[in-house]
From TrEMBL, chain A:
<keyword id="KW-1133">Transmembrane helix</keyword>
<feature type="transmembrane region" description="Helical">
    <location>
        <begin position="259"/>
        <end position="284"/>
    </location>
</feature>
<keyword id="KW-0472">Membrane</keyword>
<dbReference type="Pfam" id="PF02653">
    <property type="entry name" value="BPD_transp_2"/>
</dbReference>
<dbReference type="GO" id="GO:0005886">
    <property type="term" value="C:plasma membrane"/>
</dbReference>
<keyword id="KW-1003">Cell membrane</keyword>
<protein>
    <submittedName>
        <fullName>Branched-chain amino acid transport protein</fullName>
    </submittedName>
</protein>
<keyword id="KW-0812">Transmembrane</keyword>
<feature type="transmembrane region" description="Helical">
    <location>
        <begin position="20"/>
        <end position="36"/>
    </location>
</feature>
<feature type="transmembrane region" description="Helical">
    <location>
        <begin position="122"/>
        <end position="140"/>
    </location>
</feature>
<feature type="transmembrane region" description="Helical">
    <location>
        <begin position="223"/>
        <end position="247"/>
    </location>
</feature>
<feature type="transmembrane region" description="Helical">
    <location>
        <begin position="174"/>
        <end position="192"/>
    </location>
</feature>
<dbReference type="InterPro" id="IPR001851">
    <property type="entry name" value="ABC_transp_permease"/>
</dbReference>
<feature type="transmembrane region" description="Helical">
    <location>
        <begin position="95"/>
        <end position="115"/>
    </location>
</feature>
<dbReference type="InterPro" id="IPR043428">
    <property type="entry name" value="LivM-like"/>
</dbReference>
<feature type="transmembrane region" description="Helical">
    <location>
        <begin position="69"/>
        <end position="89"/>
    </location>
</feature>
<dbReference type="GO" id="GO:0015658">
    <property type="term" value="F:branched-chain amino acid transmembrane transporter activity"/>
</dbReference>
Length: 336, 146
């Protein structure tokens, strides 16, 4: 609560030097990582971690910062995926442009959904977004213009093409593209969490009525958070569509996307900028490795183990895995 | 409304100590609204949650047993109904018993009639549209209080 009293945004240089050096060395390490001879499985694992970390960060903005539980975030992922693939197939627009078109479309969709829905409170909003997410899936399954249930098949270019965002010889370019998006997103959300807007969003989360009494327009700030969240989610859908090159409604609008995003954030630490990284870096390898080592044994042992680990973490670390770090080390201020 | 047997059940669980003439429904409602305040009043909120789970799952068990007579059974069968259960509770209003009944009837009618009269492939959407429409004009559901 003491943060609410600081009404001005904090500049980034007002951070502990050790944190800055830790983050920059981590970034250098991630850029150098593919040159240590990672095979394509590890590259795929890293790409999935980056993608899920950004998706979880998107959910963290709406649920962690402004306190609205949305269960339909798969809709924005799907909008982003369809924007790039469909525009490329039908009109030949480069995915680099349609990533931003997808962001704009999902931002507009978030405004249209947010204005009537964010008046609802708590469970009612969560269930409304859940239904909207499923509605998108049902509509896209029947919509002939965008390929109905068979989805969109992106035609493959003959070789690697930066313009068409397709790389067939190696996963390395995808790694760097996802990494750049990951770093940009986390940097922007870090800025957001230290800005006036971030403090106002947390005021709305902690107590809407107290925020209202401080002249914070609660419903406007909820919509702003929803739009930011949707615009973070859409590029990941676009890049995922370019990564697998075939999308269908069952995959990109799946309810599992909305759920996994929630799981990662809650596991890593909700309301914390660094929580989604920790959550994704733990959860994605666990799910992949348990599938590799136990998936073939039959009887879904891998899923049982996965669920057991989730339950144990939820019982013993309700604040998320980020609480293993010393308290507030990531937000420590420079000593003056 | 007092559910006597359930109240006795809650007492036998070592339930309400400080305030003996509080009914079970009030105790559950208090816990739902504010568990810390409920604990101050001597209502053991953990036990209330556990009993609430038990009653809810018991109801689902009865529903499942009745359904098994005319619906095909497979391991994932509950997922088909879980979504409509959420919608029914939210449409009727959380915490309202009669609301659940009316919402269940509305959902069943809308799903069947919409599929029959308009287009069966959009069955889910009619139910969702009804829910969204109701909730836009009445954010607490049809019979909800909060």
């Amino acid at each position: 609560m003491d943060k609410l009293l600081i009404a001005k945004s904090e500049p980034l240089w007002n951070t502990d030097k050790r944190i800055i050096s830790l983050i920059s060395s981590l970034i250098v390490l991630l850029f150098a990582l593919p040159h240590f001879g990672l095979n394509s499985f590890y590259l795929h694992l890293m790409i999935m971690i980056f993608m899920h970390a950004v998706m979880a960060q998107s959910w963290n903005v709406i649920a962690g910062f402004s306190g609205q539980i949305s269960l339909g975030h798969g809709a924005f992922f799907g909008i982003g995926a369809y924007a790039t693939s469909f525009l490329y197939v039908q009109y030949g627009i480069s995915p680099w442009i349609s990533i931003f078109l997808g962001m704009i479309v999902s931002g507009v969709a978030a405004v249209l959904i947010g204005i009537p829905m964010l008046r609802l409170s708590g469970h009612y909003f969560a269930i409304a977004t859940l239904l909207i997410g499923i509605s998108f899936q049902v509509i896209f399954q029947r919509w002939e213009w965008v390929g109905a249930a068979s989805g969109v098949w992106v035609p493959m270019t003959s070789g690697d093409s930066l313009l068409a965002l397709q790389f067939h010889s190696s996963k390395m370019p995808y790694y760097y593209i996802f990494l750049v998006f990951f770093i940009i997103t986390f940097f922007l959300v870090w800025l957001l969490s230290r800005s006036k807007l971030g403090y106002r969003l947390r005021a709305v989360r902690d107590d809407p009525q107290a925020a209202l009494s401080l002249c914070i327009n609660v419903s406007n700030y909820k919509i702003i958070a929803y739009v930011i969240s949707a615009m973070i989610m859409a590029p990941m859908g676009s890049l995922f569509a370019q990564y697998i090159l075939i999308i269908d409604p069952d995959r990109v609008f799946n309810i599992e996307i909305s759920i996994i995003v929630l799981l990662i954030t809650v596991l890593g630490g909700i309301g914390n900028v660094w929580g989604p990284i920790v959550g994704a870096a733990i959860l994605i390898p666990i799910s992949e490795y348990s599938r590799i080592y136990l998936g073939g044994t039959g009887g879904a042992v891998d899923l049982i183990l996965y669920g057991l680990i989730l339950m144990l973490i939820c019982i013993f670390r309700p604040e998320g895995l980020i609480s293993f770090f010393p308290k507030n080390i990531l937000e420590r201020k420079k000593q003056r | 409304m007092k559910i006597l047997s359930v109240e006795n059940l809650s007492r036998s669980f070592g339930g309400i100590k400080a305030n003996n003439d509080i009914s079970f429904e009030v105790a559950e409602g208090t816990t739902a609204q504010d568990r810390h305040a409920a604990e101050i009043l001597g209502i053991p909120s953990d036990k209330m949650f556990a009993i609430g789970w038990a009653i809810g799952l018991g109801c689902v068990g009865v529903a499942g047993g009745m359904m098994a007579n005319y619906f095909f059974i497979f391991t994932d069968v509950g997922i088909n109904f879980a979504l409509f259960a959420f919608v029914a509770v939210a449409l009727g209003g959380f915490g309202s018993i009669i609301g659940c009944l009316y919402a269940g009837i509305i959902i069943g009618l809308v799903e069947s009639l919409g599929g029959l009269l308009i287009d069966p492939s959009f069955k889910l959407l009619y139910v969702f549209a009804i829910y969204l429409l109701v909730v836009i004009f009445r954010p607490q559901g049809l019979f909800g209080r909060y």
